[in-house]
Amino acid sequence: MDHRKKALLLGDYTHPDWHPLQGVDAEISRIFHDSMTVQCSENRNMLLQENISGFDMCISYMDDWKGKVSPQQTAGLLSYVSNGGGLVILHNGISLQNRYELKQMIGAKFLHHPPYGPLEFTVTEHKHPVTEGITGFTMEEEPYLFEFGSFAETTILLEYQTEDGPKPAAWAHTYGLGRIVYLMPGHHVPSFAHDSYRQLILQAGKWAARYV
């Protein structure tokens, strides 16, 4: 009998705006192989309460910049997290922000991104379970810039360096009984080959799913 916890990975196979789930799905499944099974889907109806409730964690890699999840799907995700579900959002998965209720839950919104290139990441919170044991690292990535709301008490876990100073690259907070982590890296499959990023994903998932 498989005693691993269950994760739901949502993304886009057929009509991604910029970030296809192909290839990323296999990497994430490998990262969690020892701790969680990963069910991959592009069906937004998996967010409905009756579907998402069977999972310990949801991972958003949704490329939904042009659309919106429905009010019913939004309510399902809000209820899921507030009642104790874990939500890990990777890179473009923040496109959930098209629903203002979800933007509030996430704690920040994407504004725009400078060009892809080498980024230097610094850990700003070493005692959090998501970043424990991880030191600064450099990787090629698409840098996102965010505007934070004043409505969520969030902990910045990671920053990346720019000409204008450090910018947030990861954060975590609770929402009701649930746990949320956002990790900025993850632009394409090569991102997921970086050891430090893989470790961040694993530890984010374990924290969100309440292994720790």
The main sheet orders its strands as 2-1-3-4-11-10-9-6-7
Number of DSSP helices? 5
End-to-end separation: 23 Å
The count of DSSP E runs of length 2 or more, i.e. the number of strands, is: 11
The biggest sheet, with number of strands, parallel, antiparallel or mixed sense and barrel status, is: 9 strands, mixed
**Percent of residues in helical segments?**
10-25%
Mean pLDDT: 95
Helix/strand/pairing class, anyone?
Answer: alpha/beta
Element order, helices and strands? EHEHEHEHEEEEEEEH
Strand content: 25-35%
> What's the overall geometry?
globular
Provide the gyration radius in Å: 16 Å
Unreliable spans are none
Organism: Paenibacillus illinoisensis
InterPro entries: Class_I_gatase-like, ThuA-like
Protein name: ThuA domain-containing protein
Pfam families: ThuA (PF06283)
Structure keywords:
two-stranded antiparallel sheet; alpha/beta; globular; 212 residues; 9-stranded mixed beta sheet; 5 helices; 11 strands; ThuA-like; Class_I_gatase-like
Any overview of this molecule?
By secondary structure, the protein is an alpha/beta fold. The chain has helices at 24-31, 49-52, 71-82, 100-106, 195-208, and strands at 5-10, 36-41, 57-60, 86-90, 108-112, 117-123, 137-141, 145-148, 155-162, 165-175, 178-183. The chain is globular. The protein starts with a strand and ends with a helix.
